[in-house]
Predict the 3D structure of the following.
Amino acid sequence: MSNNINPIADHLLQMTNETDNQRMLKEQEEALAIYKSTQQSLCAFNDFSKARYQDVNKHFESHAKLLKEIKGDLESVFGRLQNMKQHLGNKYPAETLVVLQKYPAPILQDD
């Protein structure tokens, strides 16, 4: 054995020839090129995904805002209807009883 610090590496270097070394370097360069190409593709895909997400998120936020406004409007309408129904019930109690007998209030189930 030689005076080299790592006798295993020295032995491996003696086992390979220049052709094998060149082939390994070429394969490593090809692997690096594939890696860089894949990395570029992933970066482009991530940029595209980010842009699409931002676009979809804007639409989602505007739709959520619209639904909240609609909910507020519906609650306002139902509140007014309830007040009108109560007012008419107080003003015309006999007619209200006839209507409730003919059209009973529906039974609502909680979701």
